UniProtKB/TrEMBL annotation:
InterPro entries according to UniProt: FAD/NAD-bd_sf, FAD/NAD-binding_dom, Ferredoxin-NADP_redctase_2
MF-aspect GO terms: oxidoreductase activity
UniProt name for this protein: NAD(P)/FAD-dependent oxidoreductase
Every FAD/NAD(P)-binding domain range: 4-282
Keyword annotations from UniProtKB, A to Z: Flavoprotein, Oxidoreductase
Cofactor(s) recorded in Swiss-Prot or TrEMBL: FAD
Short name of one Pfam family: Pyr_redox_2
Subunit architecture: Homodimer.
Superkingdom of source: Bacteria
PANTHER family found in the cross-reference section: THIOREDOXIN REDUCTASE 1-RELATED-RELATED
Length: 301
């Protein structure tokens, strides 16, 4: 099937691109295997007119908008392979179906890897989060824990202090330590730093109650923030030879073009940080305009 654009990823970035390209009368296929990064959380905050919406509801509303534009196909499938061909790309979906497209948009997002802490998986997205812009308001003024390696702990704690002044910083026995000046600043704000290894995040139904340490001590907390590690959700950018930026995101120009002709990127996969649904949607819109601009130039002469 020959399309003008194939979009991989049906999160805010890919869906926003599909909407703009549909309205530009482009023949588009959008693939999504429904494994978004924020699946663990119940609410998306800070998205204009949709503050607090369920992540799946935001995507459902977007798909509903897109269905008004008949040139866009929505495929609930995983793309398993991409091959550059003359004038475009050949994509293979997990049902074996093959598509060809002149342009390719990578809106595949990121995957998180959380620190290996007992109890964390069940609490992440419920009472422990990674981004205060997303979930800080809901945790405001509560007794919070900040879990991060020594080299990130200060920056994250300083930020979280804007939402709550009752903080305990835990480096979980990480080899990297806070610098003396950072410790002094935290001490001045009355923020204790615990370097002990965490043995358990205890609570019930996703609600953190107690942080327990290897030396037998513990501290009561009502929630907090953790600094996760991340990786790209797919290897497509590297396989296609797209240059990555210093932060590890797919490098793009101001219209979402990557270093590989015909390949565009949008959303968390290119921005990395700050990771926000509104930013991803904006990026998707921008890349769609880049794609349409290039198609117009190629076809109009
Ligand atoms: C716990 C948590 C809470 C958050 N809370 C908020 C919040 O309150 N407010 C906010 O603005 N942001 C929040 N975010 C961030 C927000 O979720 C992301 O910034 C946003 O979803 C990025 O959109 P995206 O379209 O780039 O990627 P995603 O939303 O991750 O979408 C990428 C999509 O691509 C699909 N995909 C990947 N590979 C393939 C493939 N090979 N084939 C087919 N499909 C594929 C995935 O299944 C996924 O659906 C939160 C994130 C987390 C982890």
């Amino acid at each position: 099937m020959r399309m003008e654009c194939a979009i991989i990823g049906g999160g805010p970035a890919g869906l926003s691109a599909a909407l703009v390209l549909g309205r530009a009368r482009r023949k588009v296929v959008l693939f999504d295997d429904k494994q978004p990064r924020n699946a663990v959380t119940a609410h998306t905050h800070g998205f204009l007119t949709r503050d607090g919406v369920k992540p799946e509801e935001l995507r459902r509303l977007a798909r509903q908008d897109i269905r008004k534009y008949p040139s866009v196909e929505l495929e609930s499938r995983r793309v398993t392979g991409i091959m550059p061909i003359r004038g475009g790309f050949r994509l293979q979906a997990d049902d074996g179906k093959v598509y060809e497209a002149r342009k390719l948009l990578l809106a595949t997002g990121l995957k998180e890897r959380l620190p290996d802490l007992r109890g964390l998986q069940g609490m992440y997205g419920k009472s422990l989060f990674s981004c205060p812009y997303c979930d800080g308001w809901e945790l405001r003024d509560k007794p919070l824990v900040v879990i991060a390696d020594g080299d990130q702990a200060f920056t994250l704690s300083r930020l979280i202090y804007q939402w709550s002044r009752d903080l305990v910083v835990c480096t979980n026995g990480s080899a990297s330590r806070l610098a003396p000046e950072e410790l002094r600043l935290l001490h001045r704000k009355g923020i204790p730093v615990v370097n002990q290894r965490i043995t358990e995040l205890a609570g019930e139904k996703g609600q953190l109650r107690t942080v327990r340490f290897a030396d037998g001590s513990s501290v009561k907390r009502a929630g907090g923030f953790v600094s996760p590690y991340w990786r790209h959700a797919t290897q497509f950018a590297e396989q296609l030879g797209c240059r990555l930026s210093a932060s590890g995101g797919i490098e793009t120009d101001s219209l979402g073009r990557t270093s590989v002709s015909g390949v565009y990127a949008a959303g968390d996969a290119s921005v990395i940080s700050p990771a926000q649904a509104a930013i991803a949607a904006g990026e998707g819109s921008r890349a769609a305009i880049g794609i349409n601009t290039d198609l117009v130039r190629e076809d109009f002469g």
